[in-house]
Write a structure and sequence with these properties.
CATH superfamily: Calycin beta-barrel core domain
Helix content: 10-25%
Radius of gyration: 23 Å
Shape: globular
Number of strands: 9
Order of helices and strands: HHEEHEEEEEEE
Largest sheet: 8 strands, antiparallel, barrel
CATH architecture: Beta Barrel
CATH topology: Lipocalin
Strand order of the largest sheet: 1-3-4-5-6-7-8-9
Strand content: 35-45%
Oligomer: single chain
Amino acid sequence: MHRFLLSVAAIAFIVVMYSCKKSNDAPSNTRTVQNFSGYYNYTGLSYTQGSVTISAFDSLDACEKDNLLQFKTDLTYNFIDTGLVCSPSESGSGTWNLSAKGDSLILDSDPAFIKSWDGKTLVVVATVQSVPTLITATTTLVKK
């Protein structure tokens, strides 16, 4: 009987310790290379100059709206002209990374501020110098 009680106590201890183990998995909205990696569809593009904002996504050609952006864990990206292919094709590749603070996405050497990221929808904002004011481009991507 004594062995039985010790066995039960040992099993109970193991179960309690295992159930209290913290998970090492980062939530999907944590800003890590692993979580950002994957394929994205473009769902929005707008430009703001001064106080005027123009939605440019609706005016894109159909062959541009179905393109994919792939972020790979080796910190390279592929821009994939898929579905209805544009002529000439708009495929390309380069490098990407996250800023040290995790607040910006850097494509090649061009930073874009991460406005929001919920693990699926990524909204980035990039500013381009234009005369006489700045133009801000806001891009929305949805992870497949």
